[in-house]
Specification:
Layout: H1 13-21, H2 32-48, E1 59-66, H3 81-92, H4 96-103, E2 108-114, H5 121-126, E3 130-132, H6 150-169, E4 174-180, H7 184-196, H8 200-203, H9 212-229, H10 238-245, H11 248-262, E5 267-269, H12 272-284, E6 292-294, H13 301-309, H14 326-344, H15 348-351
Parallel strand pairs: 1-2, 1-4, 2-3, 4-5, 5-6
Helix pairs in contact: 1-2, 2-14, 6-10, 6-11, 7-9, 7-12, 7-13, 11-12, 12-13
Length: 355
C-alpha cells in the first residue's frame, strides 16, 4: 500500500515568523506556544495557501479498541474482558476521555478493530458514534506466533486510512487518536524495541501498573516474540513487523496517521501506544513527522525513547499513563490558545506600542 505524504514546503515561513514576532510581546516571550502557532500556520498555509489567520480548530477524537492474545498470559492488571467493558463505558460517556471531550466540546467516536467479543446488535444501534472495523476476535499471542496475517495488516491500514479521511471530509482539521486494548503496551514495546533497536529492558514498562513479577514475565514473553521475529531476517519489512508483533488497534492508527498527513492535517499524538503507531507511520513515510504534535510524555521508558527519536518536546508532562487519547485531549486547549494569539493578539503597529 502506497502512502504518498507530502513534505511541508514552508513557503510562507517568513510571513508567519514576522507576524508572530510583531505581536505586542518581547521576541520569543510566549515560548513553546509560539512554535506551536508557527507549526499550525505552516501546515495550514501549505494546505490552503492562507497564512494570515489560522482557521478555527475542529478536532475529533477517535478511540480504536482491540484485544491482544498475550493478555491471557497475565501481563496486565486486568483481563481482556475489560476492553469490552471500557468500550461500553466510552459509549455511555463515563470514561476520562469522555470527560475531557465534553470539556472542550470535541466529538468522540469509538471503533472496534477486533475485540474478543463484539458488541450486540442492539447496543450498536443505540450509538451513532460506534463503528466496527474488526480484523478478528483479538490478535494471537505474540510470544508464540504472529499476531495477525499480512492481509489483516493491509486491511487495517486501509481501514484506518478510510476512517481518518471520513473525519477530514466532515470538516475535522485536527485529529486525535486514542486506544483501548488490554496488554497493548506489550505489542507497543515489542514494536518499539524492533524499530529503535533497543533492548527489552529499555522498552518494556509497568503499563497501567503491573507488579514486578508480572513485569519479569512480560519481558520474557516479549523477548520470545522478538526472537521469533529474527527468523524473518530476510523479510523485516514494516508490514512483517506489524503482522508479527502488532495489535489491530495499532495497525488502524498507523493507517489513520498516514492518511491525516497525506491530507496535510495535523495529528495531536497521545501517549505510548499512539506514539508507537506514529513511529511506524514515520518508518513508512518519513514526511509524517511534519504533521505530528506530541501532546505529553508518559512514564513509559519506551515512550521517552520515541520522543527522543523524533526530537520532540511534548506539550505536557503530567505523569499520565491511561491512554484513551486523554493526554492529547488535555493538550488541545494549548493549540486553541496558540491559534487565538496568532489571530487576535495585536501587533506593535496596530496597538500603537513603541519599543
Amino acid at each position: 500500500m502506497m502512502f504518498n505524504v507530502p513534505k511541508l514546503t514552508q513557503q510562507y515561513l517568513p510571513q508567519i515568523t514576522n507576524k508572530i514576532d510583531q505581536k505586542t510581546k518581547p521576541l520569543g516571550a510566549l515560548g513553546a506556544l509560539e512554535q506551536l502557532a508557527m507549526r499550525l500556520a505552516i501546515i495550514q498555509s501549505d494546505r490552503t495557501r492562507q497564512w494570515q489567520n489560522i482557521d478555527t480548530l475542529n478536532a475529533q477524537v477517535i478511540v480504536f479498541a482491540g484485544d491482544h492474545g498475550i493478555a491471557n498470559q497475565g501481563v496486565s492488571i486486568a483481563p481482556s474482558d475489560v476492553t469490552y467493558q471500557m468500550v461500553v463505558n466510552f459509549l455511555n460517556g463515563g470514561a476520562a476521555i469522555n470527560c475531557f471531550c465534553r470539556c472542550h466540546n470535541m466529538p468522540l467516536s469509538v471503533v472496534d478493530t477486533g475485540m474478543c467479543t463484539p458488541l450486540p446488535e442492539a447496543l450498536k444501534k443505540q450509538h451513532r458514534n460506534f463503528f466496527e472495523s474488526r480484523l478478528g476476535a483479538g490478535t494471537h499471542d505474540i510470544s508464540g506466533q504472529a499476531a495477525m496475517t499480512i492481509a489483516q495488516v493491509n486491511n487495517g491500514l486501509s481501514a484506518g486510512e478510510s476512517i481518518a479521511e471520513r473525519a477530514i471530509e466532515q470538516g475535522c482539521n485536527v485529529l486525535i487518536f486514542g486506544e483501548m486494548g488490554i496488554a497493548n503496551t506489550s505489542a507497543a514495546s515489542a514494536i518499539t524495541s524492533t524499530l529503535l533497536d533497543i533492548p527489552v529492558d529499555r522498552s518494556v514498562g509497568l503499563g497501567t501498573g503491573i507488579t514486578t513479577e508480572q513485569l519479569a514475565v512480560k519481558k520474557q514473553l516479549i523477548s520470545q516474540g522478538l526472537t521469533r521475529l529474527k527468523a524473518h531476517k530476510d523479510d523485516v519489512s514494516i508490514t512483517t513487523i506489524l503482522a508479527e508483533l502488532g495489535g489491530f488497534e495499532i495497525v488502524h492508527i498507523v493507517g489513520a496517521i498516514l492518511a491525516s498527513a497525506k491530507r496535510k492535517v495535523p495529528v495531536l499524538v497521545d501517549g505510548f501506544i499512539v506514539s508507537t503507531a506514529a513511529l511506524v507511520a514515520h518508518k513508512i513515510a518519513p514526511e509524517v513527522s511534519d504533521y505530528l504534535i506530541f501532546a505529553h510524555q508518559s512514564h513509559e521508558h519506551a515512550h521517552q525513547q520515541i520522543l527522543e527519536h523524533f526530537h520532540a518536546q511534548p506539550l505536557l508532562q503530567l505523569a499520565l499513563r491511561l491512554g484513551e487519547g486523554t493526554g492529547a485531549a488535555l493538550a488541545f486547549p494549548l493549540l486553541q490558545a496558540a491559534v487565538s494569539f496568532y489571530n487576535d493578539m495585536a501587533s506593535f503597529e496596530s496597538a500603537g506600542v513603541t519599543v
